[in-house]
Every structure is written in C-alpha cells, then in structure tokens.
Amino acid sequence: MPPSSTIVIDDDDASYSAISELDSDQFTHSGGDDDASSDSTPNTLKPPRKRRKLATSTWQLARDPLPHEAIRDGKNRIWYCSMCEWNSASLTSVRAHLAKKHGIEIQAGEIRAKRLREERLSNILSNLQASRQANREAQEERTLRAAINRDAFNEALVQLITMRNLPHNAATWLELYALLMTVNYTAEEVAINARATISKLIEQSYTVHRDILKSKLQNSLSKIHFSIDMWTSPNHRSFQAIVAHFVEAETRQLRKALLALPELPSHGGEDQAVAFLHVAESYDILDKIGYICGDNHGSNDKMCRLISTGLQEKSSLIGTQFTTEFDAVAISSTLPSRPSSTLKTKKQLTKPFDKFSLMRTQQLTRSLHRR
C-alpha cells in the first residue's frame, strides 16, 4: 500500500551538475580474492567513461546494484529502488513507480536546450504580441484622428463663444483642453492655443453665414421687409439695427435675420438712409425691398424719403427699376406720428457715409448675427 502522504522532490537538472566519476566498486564485485581479480580481462578493468546525471534527486533514492545484478541495460543505467526490489532503466517509469508505490513525486526539470527553445519561443510570442498591440494602437490612433472634423470643431467652438458671449481666451482654457482629451486623446492637434485665432475663425464663420443668408434673401419667395430701429449704447454710441423679414424658398416659412448693426454718427435720417442702402446693396437685394417698419420718430420719415430718392438714382444708373414709393410704410407706435408740416424737404443723398465707422462695427455685427 502506498503511504497516505505524498513527498514532492524537485529535480535540479537546470544546472546540469555532472556527477563525479563513479566508484569502481559500483562496476566490480565487492567480494572475491586476488586470483579472481587477476583472471579478469583488461576490458573489465577499464574505467567507465564519465556520464552526466540529469535527475539527481531521482538517483538519490536509488541503491547501488548488488554484485550479481546488472549495471546497465544497453546504454541506460539501471535504477534500483532503495525501498523495494523494483528496478528499471527508464527514469519515467522510475518516477511513476515512486509516486504510485511510495507516494514520492519527482518533478522532472526541463533540459537546458528545451528551456532555451521555450524561452526563445516565449520571446518571439511576446515580441509578436507587442508588435500586434502596437499595430492595434496605431490603427486605433489613425481611426480617432480620422474621426476629427477640424472645420466642424472650429465652427462649434465659434458658436459656443459667440452664442454664450464667452471671452476669446476661452479656447485656451485648460478645462476645455482636458474635456477634449477625455473624449479623444488625439484631439490635441485641433486644440487652439492662441486667442488671436478665435478672431480669425469668427471672421471666417461670419463670411460663410453671411453668404448663406445672402443666397436665401435673393431666393426669397416674397419681398423683403425691414424693421429698423436706432438705439444708443451705455457708452453713448449710436447703432442702427436692420432686420429683414422674408419667406424662405426652401421651407416656405417666414424668416427673420439681423443683416447689420452699423454704428452711426447720429440718429439723423440721412445717416440711417445711407447705412441702409449700403447694407441692402451689399446683400444685392435692392430690387426686393418691400415695406419698412419703424417707430414714429421724424428721422424715420426722412430716412424713407431719402431711401426712395437713393433707389431712383441707382435705378437710373444701372437701368433697373426699383421700388421707390414708401407711401405704405408701417409705423409701429402708440404715439401719434409727426405732422407732415414738421418734416423737412427731401434732399439728395450727398453726405458720404463713414466707411471706417461701418467696418469698425462689423465685428459686433458678426457676434450678434446669430442671435
């Protein structure tokens, strides 16, 4: 019966420790007289060659062969069990015998060549896996970079800053940069590091949206009607808001849009008329002007008369018939309008508009364009 407990012994073949030359008494009989020794042939007295044992722990459990027992079976040395009468020339059978009969498990170590092969194979597999991982990461990075739409990002950033009235340096906020990197770690190349870039992006975005609005106005299904009003900012600057109302061709719905917000020298009707005609001409909608709606300020009456005069002059110059009568101008106010006797006689548009002042207010117009 094998013992209840099992003993585990590790073979140390990694060091390839070579045993010393075996004693001669392991290969000759321990007994006998000198005459028997003298009768032996020279071949029996020849010392054996050195051999290397690969499983020293296994051989520690063997006994020496008796004089009448064989030492080798062919080229393999016979292992004799020190705990019973069993023997074998196969170390695999020896380990099975020790485990089954005596409860001793011998954990055979790998030979050096096999270990080196496995190490090389492991290195190859590791390098291959690392290469595949690097390829996957490179492919993932290319996919993430391809998913970035720089134009869409710039437009979204411009709308965020203009619609929420944020400072231009908001694009350089570290918090915004961290937010972008958490969504896509390759977005670093689209991050903006200079606030001056925002001004250029707003300028470009304004130009694009202005061209789109210009096309919609020119394709309008109706005349383009305007609501115009003057107001003064807290820093005592005068601005004219020009809002267009029209029926969009694509949706067939009523739309409105702020066309311009120029800064004027005064609230006078002449300055307003010059600014309005300049804006209408820039959008190329002089031939689509409909009604003009304003309050009951006397300068609005003068503005309408001067606009009519300006359209007549332009009509005679370019050979196009424009609408020049504003008798049906809608005046929205709870206050009574001024008597016609108080209105000044209409005159030609001789006062040149301050072009520099108009250009100066374009940035403010661009910021308010989408509101």
What does this structure look like?
- The chain contains eleven helices and 13 strands.
- With 371 residues, the protein is α/β, with parallel strands linked by helices.
- Among the domains are: 7-32 and 50-109, no CATH class; 220-368, no CATH class.
- The strands form four sheets. Strands 8, 9, 10, 11, 12 and 13 form a six-stranded mixed sheet that branches.
- A hairpin with a 5-residue loop joins β5 and β6.
- The protein is rod-shaped and about 140 Å long.
- The two termini are 96 Å apart.
Uncertain regions: pLDDT < 50 for 5+ in a row? 12-42, 324-371
Structural class: alpha/beta
Order of helices and strands: EHHEEEEEHEHHHHEEEEHEHEHH
Total DSSP helices: 11
Helix fraction by DSSP (H/I, runs of at least 4) = 40-55%
What best-fitting shape do the alpha-carbon axes yield? Answer: rod-shaped
Q: Estimate the mean pLDDT confidence.
A: 76
Main beta sheet: strand number and arrangement? 6 strands, mixed
